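Translate sequence into structure tokens.
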Amino acid sequence: MTLSAWLRAAAHQRLAAQQRSRPFESSEDVEAFFRQCDALEGPETEPDWGEHLAVIDESRRRGAPTT
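Result follows.
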């Protein structure tokens, strides 16, 4: 197996391990999921849509030049 193939296989394996393995089966599962999300660190409130657009525009300006 080449290094490239090994890296690709390892990445797929890691991604599969991190994805949710079972669907929600009850409303309690959904509530538990959102409690876990709320416990994650992050901003207290969602930024305004205008802030999102500004970040997207800045990213486009810094991106690779068109060819």
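Note: The CA atoms of residues 9 and 30 lie 31 Å apart.
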